Amino acid sequence: MGASLRAGTIEFKSLSCTGTKNAREALIRTPGPGRYPRTMSDWTSTAIALLEADANRSADTHLHLFPLPVDWDIDLYLKDESVHPTGSLKHRLARSLLLYGLVNGLIREDTVLVESSSGSTAVSEAYFARMLGLTFITVVPRSTSQEKIDLIEFSGGRCHFVEHASEISSEARRLASECGGHYLDQFTFAERATDWRGNNNIAESVFSQLAQERHPIPRWIVVGAGTGGTSATFGRYVRYRRHATQVAVVDPEGSAFYDGWAGTADAPAGRPSRIEGIGRPRVEPSFVPTVIDEMIRVPDAGSIAAIRMLKERTLHWAGGSTGTNLYGAFELIARMRAAGETGSVVTLICDGGARYAGTYYSDEWVAAQGWDLAPHRARLDRFLDTGEWA
């Protein structure tokens, strides 16, 4: 298979697990220096160039200013990651994970890529795998909605089903081994795949975009944790640059990250999150609690109330994790107001709302979850009127 460019992709032929496994086994049986190539292949060089070209085409994502009362002297910015080609913050992660595999010699032109994700990460990884001409398989629970499956397959991926969500990581690891493939493993490698010192990561982008604002060094950066990669990038970057910025992580109901950060002894395992993209039933390896200054637990109904309020006030249509971010950002701004502080706060629009039209934006679906949005909406409106978080 050649490494020539054609229409933004590498020409390829789909591979079966059997054939790839045999090729990898032959490589593994090769002893001594011949086991791994000493020089980068033309294919790898071309693959890296394709991923870098995508980053260059994508340029930067917008930093929107949320309308707060002017006399507060506090600015809230929303970095809109929904405008990436695959529609979410996970576009950055997927590109980083593939680059990490390429530069470490773990991904070659016949490598099957495997992941454990039924959400935005799988969609983005499928997009990049197709760009490089690689087979991509993601392990998903059998309960995954057809809407999500269709989106992954539209992006070029294939779904491998297991009965229970708790099985996806172990099955992905087994499948990658059987196929002679590479397990991308977002939950382990997210925090190390991104260059936190710079190289156009999301933290560097935010601070560059704030340079001409009235409060260019934010008081708080507020993010959620799905893998922990984004909070690790921001936390390391602000320390490396010696900024007086603090990093807060918001966590949905049932997630284990809060207890992992707090060091709660013998904390029970969490449950699958109902806020897609963030929250995990266990503390994942890529979660770095030591670079996080504050964690805030956010009720799921509060997250959904927040995205509906966002849509009404700004016309930005976002997913549930954006609501979790907003809810936490409002609480921190209220604390700043109470302490007489001024400054700026930055959070993220993680993905667009269109893919959640039948869930978070459906009154029937919300009612079926047992969520009452009214008290949370009242709290949000009261905050925007008075600056108090009661």
What this model shows, in words?
There is one protein chain. The chain has a domain at 57-85 and 201-386: Rossmann fold (3-Layer(aba) Sandwich). The protein is 42% helix and 14% strand. The protein is built from 14 helices and twelve strands. The strands form three sheets. Strands 3-4-12-9-10-11 form a six-stranded mixed β-sheet. β10, α10 and β11 form a beta-alpha-beta unit. α11 (300-314) crosses α14. The longest helix is centred in the C-terminal third of the chain and has 19 residues, at 320-338. It is globular.
Please provide a brief summary of the model:
42% of the residues lie in helices and 14% in strands. With 390 residues, the protein is an alpha/beta fold. The strands form three sheets. The protein has a six-stranded mixed sheet. Strands 7-6-5-8 form a four-stranded parallel sheet, sandwiched between helices.
List the helices and strands and how they pair.
Elements: E1 5-6, E2 9-10, H1 17-29, H2 42-58, E3 63-66, E4 74-80, H3 90-103, E5 113-116, H4 120-132, E6 136-141, H5 146-154, E7 158-162, H6 168-179, E8 182-183, H7 186-193, H8 202-209, E9 220-224, H9 229-240, E10 246-251, H10 257-262, E11 294-297, H11 300-314, H12 320-338, E12 343-349, H13 363-368, H14 374-386
Parallel strand pairs: 4-12, 5-6, 5-8, 6-7, 9-10, 9-12, 10-11
Antiparallel strand pairs: 1-2, 3-4
Helix pairs in contact: 2-3, 3-4, 3-7, 4-5, 7-9, 11-12, 11-14
